[in-house]
Amino acid sequence: MKKILFALVLLGHLAIQAQEKTGAQQFWENLQKHCGQSFEGEIKEGAANDTFRDKKLVMHVRSCDKNTIKIPFFVGDDKSRTWVLSFDKDRIKLKHDHRHEDGTEDKVTQYGGTSPNSGSAGIQFFPADQETFNLIPNAATNVWWITIDETSFTYNLRRIGSDRLFTVKFDLTKTVATPAAPWGWKE
Prior knowledge:
Blueprint: H1 2-19, H2 23-32, E1 38-45, E2 57-60, E3 63-64, E4 68-75, E5 78-88, E6 91-98, E7 111-114, E8 123-127, H3 130-135, E9 142-148, E10 152-159, E11 165-175
Antiparallel strand pairs: 1-2, 1-11, 2-4, 3-4, 4-5, 5-6, 6-7, 8-9, 9-10, 10-11
Protein name: Secreted protein
Signal peptide: 1-18
Keywords: Signal
């Protein structure tokens, strides 16, 4: 009887702990489940962008530390883009790391924003921060958001007050071959 009572108390405690996780913590854990895996995507909005048209799009959840997740985003042979997510004080920050083929930083890099609240397990919003405004004044009204569920991951950009909208959706149900390292990465 004591063992059953102990097991029920333990299960109750675990259930309470699970309920106490914030949206940001749950989102982070959902993303970390895919560490080391690569997925193919397709443009859902903004397909007129010639940079992405008719190119194979692959994301690779390449690096997962306790507080940093790095996701290179390959557009055909272009390995210049990495989404860098950081977790701190129940907020998630998104930065865009852009590199040249020789590994040096592009002059337009490290833009993005920090979630204004904990968000939810399936979606996080990142309004443009001051660094973004200083670097790209026209991007002051950018809002990026990432969604994740059991079957898909989406990366989205909306420039408020304009027609600019970009969405790429990745199928999390099928992994693809892992690409070589993105530009600027040391193995």
